[in-house]
Records
---
Amino acid sequence: MSAQIISGTEIAKAIRSELREHVANLKAQKGLVPGLAVVLVGEDPASQVYVRMKGKAADEAGIFSRQITLPAETPEDELLGVVEGLNADPQVHGILVQLPLPDHIDEQKILLAIDPRKDVDGFHPMNVGLLSTGATDVLAPCTPWGVIQMLLRTGNDPAGKHAVVVGRSNIVGRPMASLLLRKAVGGNATVTVAHSRTPDLPAVTRRADILIAAIGRANFITADMVKPGAVVIDVGVNRVDDDSDRGYHLAGDVAFDEVKEVAGSITPVPGGVGPMTIAMLLSNTVDAAERIHADG
Ligand code: NDP
């Protein structure tokens, strides 16, 4: 039997519409307008598209958005000055510096300069540390946080389940594992994290009730690696060359056509985890605004 398809597009749409309503209430009841600043250094075309999409999504939700575009040769000190300005700006509750940054800028230094309360990407070491100690009032990285929302909203609460995460990056794999492990809603799973040095990976992934692939290799998870009935979440976004006019198509880390015949539920690529990332960025911005507002 074919798996239930989990549509990230639909879930993200629902979250964004709930946020629009919530933001309207915050404005009406507290005079609070959440604000997001996105900083782009250089002219990388993919980054320009992401930044535009984030600004548009914020506007649609009623979130005030500001885009700061700086030339590729901007000195590190100048970027640090921009971040400090945004830290001090009462209209801005979320700061996102689009990565990757040009080589002459130390990414870690920039991430450290962002006020952790405004770190809507959840990459500041303080937020990373808080999340890994199980804190619940913390800004969590958008992609894994979006995966948790997808699970919860499709009746696949991870509590008591065995979740296997393939990938241990700081952006996806590690925070994914931390969220699944938390003693909190969306957590309480038994978590295994696998990576490129894991021997007999299929034996590990076959034990998963919830299998999350964040590997970066097209169609890597095949049907024989999946337990019948498992929930399969595909974080991967990979370009695969083809003969189309565009010259490529996007594929996930999961061999969708064969795995959907074994899994109980599965996310497609595109239209799966991808749209959730922006929805959770908006959600983090609203959470940040409410916490900063409550702190006075
Ligand atoms: P990284 O390259 O940083 O990490 C990949 C991880 O996969 C590493 O931990 C690596 O192991 C592991 N891995 C690689 N090869 C194997 C293998 N043969 N067997 C087992 N594990 C392996 O990637 P990211 O985490 O940044 O991204 C993962 C995927 O998710 C990418 O396709 C990316 O495009 C996508 N992505 C999608 C997002 C979205 O919004 N949908 C957002 C972010 C990422 P090791 O540590 O040992 O090297």
Note: The CA atoms of residues 45 and 51 lie 10 Å apart.
---
Amino acid sequence: MALKKEDYPISVQFDFNTGVFEPQEKSVERKVSDMVKMFHDKTAVESMIKAGDPLVYEIFYYGFKTSASDMALGTTRIQPGKVGDEYYMTKGHFHEAFDQPEIYFCVKGEGYLLMETREGEFQAEKWTPGTISHIPPMWAHRVVNTGKEPLVFVATYHLAAGHTYTEVEEKGFLKCLVEKDGKATFVLNDKRK
Ligand code: PAN
Ligand code: ZN
């Protein structure tokens, strides 16, 4: 059977410093206004939006679809910063499909990967460059940048995974990461008290 165009191998070139790769299919920006429900200090959220609505993170994306499979590559660059006392982070989501895991590879910066099941199991992985984490199916996942430089990580997953954000938007994760006395500190999420 003749191969289609999409069935040929392809490579992209990744920059470890910026987190950008080329060619890419698309990039997406998330600003504070896209994450109003995620940060706990609503007054800080409003004043930051009024003061210019800063960029929190960007996603650079390529979906490798072939006739028989689909694999996605996404790199994420989270800026350093805080909303109130809470560090910048990704929105976080569950995969829609019950059997879809993901691999995350931290290449720059420092922070934490937060994961939680619907049954309330919570686990946080400390990240430094070189940490590779496996996110099993049915664990919501979010990355928090607790450092002073951009945090960059590479993700691979199947497009069949799908993304669902509403539960994380409503309930958050069990714990938040805030700066206390100059240090990254876990505190119980207000919504869970
Ligand atoms: C990642 C995430 C990316 C941005 O590619 O989509 O880091 O985080 P949010 O999707 O939570 O905004 C991934 O986990 N894909 O499944
Ligand atoms: Zn995911």
Note: The pocket of zinc ion (ligand 2) is lined by residues 93, 95, 102, 141, 157 (CB under 6 Å).
---
Amino acid sequence: MTTVHQAAYETLRAQGLTTFFGNPGSNELPFLKDFPADFRYVLGLHEGAVVGMADGYAQATGRPALVNLHSAAGTGNAMGALANAWNSHTPLVVTAGQQVRPMMGVEALLANVDAATLPRPLVKWSAEPSCAQEVPLALSRAIHMAATPAPGPVYLSIPYDDWKQQAGPGVEHLSSRRVEMAGMPSQEALARLVRALEGAVNPVMVVGPDVDATQANGSAVALAEKLAMPVWMAPSAPRCSFPTTHTCFRGLLPAGIASISRLLDGHDLVLVVGAPVFRYHQYEPGDFLPKGTRLISITCDLNEAARAPMGDAVIADINGTLRTLADSVSKASRPLPALRIRPALAQDETGPLSPERVFDMIDEMAPRDAIYVNESTSTTNILWQRLRMTEQGSYYFAAAGGLGFALPAAVGIQLAKPDRRVIAVIGDGSANYGIQALWTAAQYKIPAIFIIMKNGTYGALRWFAGVLEAENVPGLDVPGLDFCALASGYGVDALQADSSQALVVALRKALSSDRPVLIEVETRA
Ligand code: TZD
Ligand code: CA
């Protein structure tokens, strides 16, 4: 006899989801019972941290990750992190324990009332199986739904009495199913794209997070070189999809309608790949595109394609399409765009360090293939100007702007990529939203480096208050925080840096440690 529990673990094993990220409660214990030796459980002390770690892990591996939350309260705590996962197309299979079926109707303590509605609209699919025998099918469906383009989180609520029930007939067919998207454009569509690209006098490419997510970075470089095109990172970038040292690279697009239009002026064709058109932030009314400019986007996401306010879209396999285009277009006779001049290195001064100086020092000392996780909100432009990022999977940022991503995600990414060094740069405001992940880093010996930029304020909100002409706003300063004390409270080694010399020493120690290290840096606001 196969139980629902056995069938579920067989499917999880066959589909490669052998790492659980979770925070358990009584509803979940029957699922975790007799936890198999070839599985591992990564405990997070808050559900925001749990989903953030799983998000980083899934993005870095490119494979769905399994999350196990506690009923409604655990799901509620995870919602901010789900917003980020939804926007970054992270394949997450989020499961939550439900009360036993005989006690759901009376709404006993820990019943998740209307469970499938709770995580919407931040999941691709949400369900509670109608009977125990449906659980293995629902789990299999959840995994394939999460992984198939456009990837994203899915949610399953599972009553805890289901696990010991007998599985239904035919359950053995489920575990090894393959579900694949064959997403190449038709010959005609490809020919149209090639004609548009070859016919453009001054084309430009805008690359987004799904170029990096589908490991299409090399294909993007090949196409840019063939067409001698400048390349921008799409606004509000959650990943880095193009080597920032490449001669074609122009930088990160700003996130306002008018600013983007201004920067794209003079181009007759804009090719957007693997990004929404566009992920705006501050409201800057204006024309979406300069006059006479045509826009075509290649995306894996039907929603992105349909909601764009301008341009044509092709929903397709990003890497395959880019590679085919790079092979098909004839080489442009234009010269390659000239290499951008890098900003001069920041001077050393006494007192709190400038963010420019901090990023210069990180760039100088970090390994060339370091992975950066950014949640230092007011210094994002400085980061993009000063950090050299050349490899696939070198940069992560909260895709919905929900704080509490970077610290946990850094832990998940470092767990997924033990051969590269993860360096998270986090503001003294942002660090508080996912701080519990420090404990997981310490306990599981995950040697990520956390650099806390301590300027005592919500710097990005001060900037925004200026944009919005909102004066005399309360609640924008965060004095009195001691991150070294917090780190040691969670078991993480901590170092303080109030000068360039101290930062050099701290970075050197952190980079040579095989344990997680937090560095608190006094920075200028
Ligand atoms: N809460 C959550 C979950 N997400 C948010 N994005 C915010 C609040 C609002 N918020 C921002 O968008 S930026 C920011 C807040 C509070 C300030 C972050 O401050 P920091 O970094 O110290 O981390 P800077 O460099 O000083 O801005
Ligand atoms: Ca700050």
Note: Residues 80, 376-379, 401-404, 427-430, 433, 455, 457-461 surround TZD (ligand 1) (CB under 6 Å).
---
Amino acid sequence: MTTPASSGTKKRVFSGMQPSGEAHLGNYLGALRRWVQMQDDWDCVWCIVDEHAITAGGDPAELPGNVFDLAVSYLAVGLDPEKAIIFVQSDVPEHTELAWLFNAVTPVGDLERMTQFKDKAQRFESIPAGILNYPILQAADILLYKADAVPVGEDQKQHLELTRDIARKFNAAYGETFPETEPLIEEGVGRIMGLDGEAKMSKSLGNTVPVLAEPDEIWNRVRTAVTDPQRVRKSDPGRPDVCNVFTLHGFFSDVGTRADIDRRCRSAEIGCVDCKRILSDNIAAAFGPFRERAAEYHANPRLVREILDDGAERARAIAKQTMAEVRDRMGLDWRKATG
Ligand code: TYM
């Protein structure tokens, strides 16, 4: 028995996000915005990867709320349960089962050279195996659905290369089963910098703008953004080409506004605070419809629950087929010996 790679004529995409609360502007530009656009042309599976979020422990009291908040973010930005499967990883136990089986074809050396592992490992005296095995679970997420492609930001590139290696090794050892999934990384948005202008925008660094923030909060964040370090006084001419705030204008302000800011920054006619104010207002306007939709879901948590329950059921139906095939290929069927 083989699992269809995708339903109908559409190719399948899978992607996921860790539930560390609401999504932020980097998640939105690097991933979510594209996911929304893909929903008409692809067979889409969007996951909340709660089992990835606990690879190094975590507070059990916070996780349910974080999953809920991310689900609201997904729905608020436009992920659509009518068009896509939207579900929570731990509702489909086949993810961890397949991850276990992939241990058999994954060299430890490949896991140890992952840059995300090396970065995270530094934070521990005794390194949890979860952060080493993290990319195996990610490969299982993707291959369980035989996804043709995975839209992600640049930081996931190495994990996706490993996913392809795992698929290749599995196919070589047990027969052609999995596709070699393509990473889809959008040029220019694969690595959105944080408001500190120094590191990738990331919740753990506190340099983000949450997509569901109120205009006041957006302003409180954006006003702290680092601009051209050489521009100390308002009377100093600025250099938009090295300024992260100006880069962010590229996503939220129209061409005319950008040209005007560029000129007035270089001639010191506009200061950084005014420039940030325009950016903050434009982000607040762009994210306004998301806040409105989020308020509806917050007022109706049962609806969110129904959407995720339904998504899990649909995901499980695909996962079960793949696992039946994998178990058979790996000889996990002792009854065969009894005739
Ligand atoms: P996570 O939760 O860190 O991020 C979710 C998605 O957002 C992208 N992203 C960014 N893109 C551009 N600029 C940024 N500053 C930025 N920050 C985050 C990420 O690249 C990602 O696409 N390991 C994954 C979760 C995962 C997964 C999967 C992804 C688990 N299984 C299967 C795809 C397929 C992660 O931690 O993403």
Note: Residues 301-329 form the longest helix (29 residues).
